[in-house]
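Troubleshooting log. The previous run stalled partway through. Resubmitting the same two chains, unchanged.
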Amino acid sequence: MSHLVRPPTPPDDDLDGRLRAFYRAEMPDPWPSWQAPASRVTLPARPTSRRKGFWGSRLALAASVALLLGGSLFLSGAVPALGTKPPIKLHGGDAIHPKDPGEIPGMRQIRELIVDPKEGTTFDKLILTPDDGAPIK
Amino acid sequence: MKSIPPADEARRADFEALYQRHSREVWALAYARWTNADTAMDITQEAFLRLWKQWEAGETVLQPRAWLLRVARNLAEDHAKSAFRRNGTHPPQTMNGVQAHDPLPLESLEREETFGQLREVLNQLPTADREILTLRYALEYNTTEIADLLSINATAVHMRLSRARQRVAERLKAQGVGQLP
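Second attempt completed without errors. Output:
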């Protein structure tokens, strides 16, 4: 019967042995085998076209900007709101109303500026008179 | 019983061969990042599952080894912050091949303690050091194989390996770790 006598191991070999033993202990044993998934894996549907997505995003951006600008203009009053009457313009008491009858043959127009002393507001009073006679109010 | 078409069977066999060829390398890189065997195996299986899905979708992966290593690195980096860490990205039934390795056999307490200290030392090293040590000592790769896998030259492998071993030795010595039982 023979005995193998190991020579004293240098420190480096000891380090190799330690590292080898450590890593071998860490590795899974037995190594797991691969088993493909039973059912066919379906990938989520991709967009049919990248360009479509590109233009879609650009369109959404343009719409957002337009909406923002439109909203700010609306709020600032630069654009008249839908369904409201055009404003009556007052220039030196000369009110102009869209329903101003204009020139009527045989009639004369007299305008009077009425001032409401309580409210401090003014409005235009239109008086039509026949060319020959008394005023019709 | 539903039979598997020959084409599917051949494809599965091809994939199994690919798995046998590269899965340990993928595991080694993931292990080098986290120093955790189970996490590394999860990442390995996830990387291969993703490659399988590519095959299933009919997409060609020209260099599957490089693809797998890249995906595994990304998965390892994302592992800390992703939901994959908590739940995985696929339901459990799709992970048929996954099984955690059995618990370590009962070793002596001294041996466990030494491994624990070694693990602690390895955790303090840069990932690059751990990669080269894992490839050398877990996979028993030689210089050429390591150089090929890490895309570096043989001289760099020697240098990195030498420095990594030196760092391990110094730290172990500083901790007063004795001989392995």
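Takeaways: The first helix of chain A runs from residue 11 to 26. The longest strand of chain A covers residues 107-115.
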